[in-house]
Design a protein that fits this description.
5 helices; elongated; mainly alpha; MFS general substrate transporter
Amino acid sequence: MISKQEATRKRAESELGNLDMKTALSEMEDLKDTGPGNAQELVHPGPPFTREDEINVYRKLDWNLMPLVFVLYSLSVLDRSNFGNSKIAGMEDDID
């Protein structure tokens, strides 16, 4: 009967091909330690963000996006008012 370590070694050889055997075995051992409790670390491998980090990101986004949104909204208001002024001036045919 084949030992567990021997089976792991054969699986590593067949799945990982020409990689270094020590690297392959260490990766297999690392994966063996992952259980249901460690699933969160596999999905989000970095450190968790604090509430202060989130606030800083939102603040940076606000400072970068809000001027652009303001300019676009102002242009939209100007465009709408210009349609009304052009109709008053008798340029309806040019608008269509």
